[in-house]
Amino acid sequence: MSWSGIGVFIEQDEGVVEETSLEILSRARELGDQYNLDVIAFLLADNARELADKISGHGASKIVYINNPLFKTYLTDVFTETMYRLINKYRPRYLLFPATRDSRDLAGRLAIKLRTCLLAHVISIDIDPSTMRMNAAVPGFGGSIAAVCECITMPEMATVTPGVFTPRIFKNLRAELIDETEISKDLSSNIRKISRVRMPKPDVSKAEKIVIAGAGCLQDLETVKNFAKEIGAEFAVTRPVADAGLASRDLQVGSTGITLKSKIAIVLGASGAPHFVSGIRDCGYVISVNIDPEAPIKEYSDLFVVGDLYELIKILLARLRG
Amino acid sequence: MSSEPIYIVTMKVVPKPEEIVFDPVTKTIDRSKATNEINPADKNALEEALKLKDRYGGKVIILSMGPPFFEPFLKIGVSMGADDAILVSDKALAGSDAYVTSKVLARAIEKIGSPTLILCGEESSDGSTGQVPPGVASWLNIHQATYVSKVIELDLSKRIVVVRRTIKGGYEDLEIPIPAVLAIELGANTPRLPDFRRKRWVEKEFKVKIWSLNDLNLKPEEVGLVGSPSRVRELREIKPPERLRKIIENLDEAANEILKLIKNKK
């Protein structure tokens, strides 16, 4: 059987589907329509049948699912082996994964097992009609340069950066559901999960209004957090603040963290390192405050305020409270 | 098998991203003016290995693939406390992608023999694919844990390692069989400074071991640009959007402007 169609890995955790998988599905559907290709979603979960129904209109023509309690949360060994078996059976020419921690872990291992190529956290996916090869842009060097890459082996694999495509519902589309539960029946994991701690938080990457604390806020982060709350904005940080252990990595903005699309972003005490500014590129209006009039963040700001950020917060709060 | 644990730390030397210049006309990257440094996450991997050595004894070996100019950087790692450093260096390796890099590193690890743990930085600051650690584990067919924020425990008699791994919105503690590849998160720890006396010893006596492709039984056509399954078609600069760059130096005036903006941009 030759390699054909577009495969999409549907990431889920305890029955909750990762949004990026749906974003990728919608792009895969567009390419599928354009080049007459099947879009095959691969779904490994504890409640896969139920989830398959839920994602049915999101772009897949087929959903290959496995119902197995082993897949409740991600485990490298059993996910890799199961996907390896499924890929060899269904042979999608293109194979896409969300560029999240779990799926990057899986895709990186699977690509080598399949002896094929994997493009990392791409920000665009196209097919070159002359060769039918996938062409995808891979950002590098802190997000300032993109390399348009292709794979010369099959399947042509890529992980896709969260937030670059918009999930859609295709009204007239119902996916064909294929139960492959049997394929993983003999598997068990050698990894033991001792404990798991999750603090469900609002998804900051979708915030309309955001306050971002940079290294200049290290002396007093609480004041900045309170300020964000007062103006009804979400709170995020730059890498130095996360590195200092003062905020979760999930709040870190930039090429190694989240990408923002906020209408308004207030950047406090951040110098404007390249890996950070790539995370605010898609924001509507950027206000930044820095004590250094020559801070590089100036170039990436619509409004650049030179001065002490704590002084400014004080004035703002005084006015807001009337 | 020897009872002494062996920790292999993979290391890459990278140009500082902010100092790289892109020429939009020739579509090439000029790294020549950029300062080089040990990939920051690899330093965290080395520190995690040195902490393991402090707790459980054993040997820390730095393994790298790259041109000869990497040598002084590997020596910094030895000054920090690593016992040995190996550099796989061969002209044919130029242009290797993550597929080839992980293959070459895996081959070198097999040559070193029976490691307890292989510690890598979660990703490099230049390529940032994060594919090398799972790739190495896959070539060697051993377990892996990525995005590890700390190694909690190593039990040599039970042949397991317990790690804390970052997941979306939290973390999980995993027990995995050794040998294993651990990808250590950037900023997971504070890397120690080079030891002054060790540094003197390194400068006077220590030599980095250089391995060629021949030493790893690899052929030139299996590596480098020709052996890599991914190809770069073109480089593009991602231009930031044009911003208004309005500057205000008076805080009262700035406050007025900001309040107006917050109201209007709802």
What does this 3D model show about the protein?
The complex is a heterodimer of chains A (322) and B (266). Chain A is α/β, with parallel strands linked by helices. Chain A has two domains: 6-184, Rossmann fold (3-Layer(aba) Sandwich), CATH 3.40.50.620; 204-320, 3-Layer(aba) Sandwich (Rossmann fold), CATH 3.40.50. Helices cover 26% and strands 29% of the residues of chain A. Chain A has helices spanning 19-35, 48-55, 76-90, 101-113, 221-230, 239-243, 274-277, 309-320; strands at 6-10, 12-13, 16-17, 39-45, 62-67, 94-98, 118-122, 124-128, 133-140, 145-151, 156-160, 176-179, 192-198, 209-213, 234-237, 264-268, 285-290, 303-306. In chain A, strand 2 and strand 3 form a beta hairpin. The longest helix of chain A is centred in the first third of the chain and has 17 residues, at 19-35. Chain B has a single domain (6-264), classed as Rossmann fold (3-Layer(aba) Sandwich). Chain B is built from seven helices and 15 strands. Chain B is 29% helix and 31% strand. Chain B is an alpha/beta fold and 266 residues long.
Q: State the name of the first-level CATH class of chain B.
A: Alpha Beta
Q: What portion of residues of chain B belong to β-strands?
A: 25-35%
Q: How many individual helices of chain B?
A: 7
CATH superfamily of chain B: HUPs
Tell me the greatest interface: A-B, 98 and 76 residues
- The order of strands across the largest sheet of chain A is 7-11-6-1-4-5-12
CATH topology of chain B: Rossmann fold
- Helicity range of the residues of chain A? 25-40%
Would you spell out the secondary-structure blueprint of this structure?
The complex is a heterodimer of chains A (322) and B (266).
Chain A lengths: L5 E5 L1 E2 L2 E2 L1 H17 L3 E7 L2 H8 L6 E6 L8 H15 L3 E5 L2 H13 L4 E5 L1 E5 L4 E8 L4 E7 L4 E5 L15 E4 L12 E7 L10 E5 L7 H10 L3 E4 L1 H5 L20 E5 L5 H4 L7 E6 L12 E4 L2 H12 L2
Parallel strand pairs in A: 1-4, 1-6, 4-5, 5-12, 6-11, 7-11, 14-15, 14-16, 16-17, 17-18
Antiparallel strand pairs in A: 2-3, 8-9, 9-10
Helix pairs in contact in A: 3-4, 5-8
Chain B lengths: L5 E6 L1 E3 L5 E3 L4 E3 L5 E3 L1 H17 L2 E7 L5 H10 L3 E5 L9 H15 L4 E5 L10 H9 L2 E13 L4 E8 L2 E8 L2 E5 L11 H9 L4 E3 L12 H4 L2 E8 L8 E3 L2 H14 L2
Parallel strand pairs in B: 1-6, 1-8, 6-7, 7-13, 8-12, 9-12
Antiparallel strand pairs in B: 2-5, 3-4, 9-10, 10-11
Helix pairs in contact in B: 2-5, 3-4
